Amino acid sequence: MCKKNRISTPRAGTKGKRPAISKRNRAATVLLTAILSMTMLSGNAGLAAFAEDGGRVAPATDGKPTALAGNSKPNPKEEIVYARLDAGGAVGGVYVVNSFEGGDVTDYGNYTSVKILNTNDSISLDDGLVHFSSSADKVYYEGYLEDAEMPWDFSIQFFLDGKKYTADEIAGKSGALTIKISVKRNNKCKGDFFDSYALQMTAALNTEICQNIKADEATVINAGKDKQLSYIVLPGSEKEFVITADVKNFEMDSINIGGVRLNLGITFNDSELLGKVREIQGAAAKLDDGAGGIDKGAATLKEGTATFSGATQSFESGATKLDKGAEELQKGILQMQEGVDTLNSRSASLTDGSAQIKAALGQINTKDLVYLASQNAQAAAGVQVLLDSIDLLASFAKATEDSTAEAALTVLRQQVAQFYELLHSDSEALSKIGAFTDTLSAEYSAFDKGISEYTEGVSAIANGYPAIVSGVSSLTEGSKGLADGALEIHHASSNIADGAAALLDGTKELHKGTSEFHSKTNGMDTEITGEIDSVIAAISGGKGNTVSFVSERNKNVSSVQFMMKTGAIKIPDSNNDKPAAKKEPTTLWEKFLHLFDKS
């Protein structure tokens, strides 16, 4: 049994351990509201008020119960615990109504007084042992607990326009009302009642007094001019509720609180749910396989991009070398252009010298050689002029590094020199000179033609060389662009390789996550089935044996219920100096109804 000092002040309480499942679906709450309502209104419906009748009996003075009573088998019993709370939630008095089948009954409880409610049989109380005998089919007796601790600590606070009031102070006032209701574990109370019993709290507000009522977590029922606000507190839960309203001449009926152990008998068809879960499990397996494939593909991609990056680096290096080579080529071409221009400018001198030689040969007449013999001195002078011209052409050919022309002129000079020597020979030699002159004249025509073709070729090269220079310039510019582009490609390929490496890291994490997801979902169907059972067990408070609230010595207890009621908030009636006389309860039902009114 839980004990408590009588009439304690509201306390904040100490937070207890919450159950494994702390959040519930609102639909389940509505269902539980209906179940609790039916449970608490059935059978023992005497929950409205304690009887005003003091009716307590003093402990028996006629000795201890008989040995037969003390040694008898425990009688099956039911307990209903009635607690009067003040308007702030503090416990003011606790009565327990115990019900038995008739016969010789032994019960235990630290009562200060006991009383049978429905028969005139005598009852005895001695040091916590209660005994009576009755022939009635059902016997109810009431025991009063002087200082009982309830499993729950209740705190009810009232605020009007933001200012806190006591229940007595707020009666008859008007303004913006806020009611804060707190339910917490009472750690002073022994037993598992807090973790095993659900509460239903019902507060009624008169809509003629209260407007704009708001209670977010309540199930609201319209009952005539009242709005009934019903709350559910599941086993093991600590809750806080807030009610707001605009009030005028505020009054409020008592808040009724019932606590029961739920035996819902819920059966849950989980086949459809588990079917979906198994689909998820299959999808998780496929997802893991797919992630593994992605991981392998990313590894291959990383290898490929690394190879590609290496190739672009080689390409960039080659493009850079090509660019440098193009610059060197351009420099060489420009230098060569200068030489071609110089050669082309000297072609006219070469052509003029060759024409002079040809003209000189034309001046030599073989028919006049006899005359020349006599005129040897004059001919020798003419041949000397020819030798000088040949030397001039040989110098030009050497200056232009034309080895072919230089060699030809050397041969020609030798022949002319011989001719010069022949001029000093006899007339027989002059005859040979005539034949040599004819040969030289014929050969020099071919040589002169070659000179003309050579100078024309040089001129053509000089004319076409600007196009070569322009092409080489374009090549240089193109190679520069190619080198820049190759560098950009290499940088881009490096970025691609880095991205592929990062992608591989990501796919590894993805595969790790999907593997973990697959592992976690692998037994999810079994876990869900167990969790459903756990949720149902938590809602119903478990399937443990019912124990007595009054005494651990009571072993054969079929049910324990809690019925609590706060004080009402009423405007004092100034017209009546004395309270109206109340009717003495006579029937069992009336005694149940008036239990909460006992002082």
Instruction: Give the SSE order as H and E letters.
Output: HHEEEEEEEHEHEEEEEEHHHHHHEH
- How many helical stretches? 11
| Helix/strand/pairing category | alpha+beta
Categorize the overall geometry: rod-shaped
Q: Quick check: average pLDDT? A: 77
Could you tell me the number of beta strands? 15
Radius of gyration: 64 Å
The helicity comes to 40-55%
Strand content: 15-25%
Low-confidence segments, given as residue ranges, are 5-71
Alpha-carbon distance between the two ends: 22 Å
Q: What does the largest sheet look like?
A: 10 strands, mixed
List keywords for this structure.
rod-shaped, alpha+beta, 599 residues, ten-stranded mixed β-sheet, five-stranded antiparallel β-sheet, 21% strand
In summary, what is this structure?
The chain is an alpha+beta fold and 599 residues long. Helix content is 49%, strand content 21%.
Describe the structure.
With 599 residues, this protein is an alpha+beta fold. It is built from eleven helices and 15 strands. It has helices at 26-41, 67-71, 167-170, 193-196, 271-363, 369-374, 376-399, 403-422, 427-522, 524-540, 588-593, and strands at residues 77-85, 91-108, 113-116, 123-126, 129-145, 152-160, 163-165, 175-185, 198-206, 210-214, 219-223, 226-233, 239-247, 256-260, 557-566. The strands form two sheets. Strands 1, 2, 3, 4, 5, 9, 11, 12, 14 and 15 form a ten-stranded mixed β-sheet that branches. A five-stranded antiparallel β-sheet has the order 7-6-8-13-10. Helix 5 runs antiparallel to helix 10 and helix 8 (403-422) packs antiparallel against helix 9 (427-522). The two termini are 22 Å apart. 29% of the residues are buried.
